[in-house]
Amino acid sequence: MTDPAPSNPPGHHDAQMSFEGRMSYGDYLSLDPVLSAQHPRSAAHDEMLFIIQHQTSELWMKLALHELSAAREAIAAGALRPAFKMLTRVARIMEQLNGSWDVLRTMTPSEYQQFRPFLGESSGFQSHQYRMIEFVAGNRNPELIRPHEHRPELAASLRAEMGRPSLYAVVLGRLAAEGFDVAAPQDVSAPTAPDPAARAAWGAIYADPERWWGLYELGEKLVDFEDYFRRWRFNHVTTVERIIGFKRGTGGTAGVSYLRRMLDTVLFPDLWDLRSGL
Q: What is the pLDDT of residue 198?
């Protein structure tokens, strides 16, 4: 006759078992408000999936903004190596966001239609953090602040961002500090546009990476970020088309046709353009 299996796994004896008056896992992570923040408005089974997928995406975007802001400060200060780590993390965050579409695509069009009417006019187009990521990167359009005017603090944060040099503008400043004939944008609120001087500077850097290794690696980190960002947009388009076809979006956009136009937006055109001339 064998002895009964132990009720606790080996090594548990030193684990803290009583948390009265102590910091627990749930306390540190504030799990009660996080796990109670899902409020389906219908009886549809798949609405919970839809809510959690978008909530977790917003959490990843919050971390991406944390890293992008810190990377911008580090680049401005000439601390490129710490910035590389932050930008690498942003690319990995984008990879996580891409994976979330795979989970959402397990929902069929019929299942989505069971709760879509309960969304009202809410839409991912209204994501403040998504818009902030674009603004930080340099894709700026004051017209896109309007969907946030009902929340004055959110609209104000986007306007404040438009008053700061974008991530790419700070990168151009770093190129200028290294001796390249590149000027910072005169209007920091304007979207990034192709710049022949910047294109020439990147061309020189990529033609001699051994000499300009830090700037060369910086360019590649930006391309990594945009590469994954483009994939995120593309997966968004295909997921929407798979689930609702070419219906209009709940927020009033043209849906898939609108999202496809957004695929043509390039965050760092100089870095992509130089490749044709190498």
A: 96
